[in-house]
Every structure is written in structure tokens, then in C-alpha cells.
Amino acid sequence: MRLKSLQIESLGDVGWESPLLEFGYRTTMLFARNGSGKTPVVRALASALGFPNNFRTDILEKCNAVVLRAESEGKPLTIRRTIDATNEGFYATIDFDGEQTEHYSQGSFSLALFRLLGLKPPRLVSTKGEEAQPYIATLLPLFYLIQGYGYSAAYRAPSTFIADQFAEMVRFAFGLNPKHSYE
């Protein structure tokens, strides 16, 4: 998957929106003064990829959705994730090659995005010994640094519910068999 652009949509006529932010072919660098909005842009990107929303109150009150445009296997991909008033709700659409799906949960969204990317999520063991499914939010921290924690931890997911989660996500990312398969 190659990221193409990101845009934050306004909530009504007096809301806030971003210009179309286009990504570089290989690398994109955000460089600006403190307080200029870099963190909300990075959080918007993570949100569009299924990470739990964590926006400030003013953004919740002024912004409606995040739209991420990408391509996968040369075909257009658009993900639109709403920003709700509490950071709690989940609603996203995935439009891939002209076909649109709606997702009301992190689990449904993650399965759809994994499949679209050609990844088959393993059946893993939860910390309670039950079957667990990885989410984008459990895999993304391998590639996304949560700014508030800096480099104090190699892996920091919003929640830990998979047995040996860090090792399982590394194995999943590299296409290796699970350490603790539920099968």
C-alpha cells in the first residue's frame, strides 16, 4: 500500500479543515514550529488506519472526518474515518477499486484492511486464554511511535489483550507462524 494524501474535513461551515496534504513517494517529513498542528495530522493518519482516536476537544468540536487516499496493487483506495464528539465511537468506510464497505468496529475494519493488503490475521490466544484477533491498532505500533511515550518502549499499543502481544505482532508483520496459535 502506498499512501497518497490525507485531508481533515470540516464539521459544518465554521469547522476546521486541512488542505490536501500529499505524501512523498518514499518519505514525508512534517516540519513546523511547536503548536502548529503536526501532532493532530499524525494522529489523523493513525486514526484513518484504524488506531483509536485521541484528539483534543477543539478538534472533536470542529472536525468531521479524516480522509486517507492511497493505492494498493495499483488500485485506488480511500479510507474515511469519522471523528466523533467523544473519541469513543468507530465508523469508517473503505472504498477500494470502486467497492465501498462500512465498518462500525475496530475488528471489522481491521479484518477488511488486512485482507485488502493480502494479510491473513492469525488466530491468537488472548491474555485470558481465549481466541483473539489482531487489530490494526495492535500491529501499527511496530511502525508508529506514540509521541507521549517517546522512545521509552519499543512497542506501545493502546491496549494489550493478546498473549505475548509484541512478539506476536512482530511474527505477524514478518509472515512467521504465531508463537501462541489458538488453533
Q: What is the multimeric organization of the chains shown?
A: single chain
- CATH fold-level topology of the largest domain: Rossmann fold
Number of strands: 8
* Main CATH class of the largest domain: Alpha Beta
Question: Between the first and last Cα atoms, what is the distance in angstroms?
Answer: 29 Å
Extract low-pLDDT stretches. none
Please, could you describe this protein's structure?
The protein has 183 residues and is α+β, with helices and mostly antiparallel strands. The protein has two domains: 1-116, Rossmann fold; 120-183, no CATH class. It is built from five helices and eight strands. The protein has a six-stranded antiparallel beta sheet with strand order 2-1-3-4-5-6. Strand 3 and strand 4 (75-82) form a beta hairpin. InterPro entries: P-loop_NTPase (IPR027417).
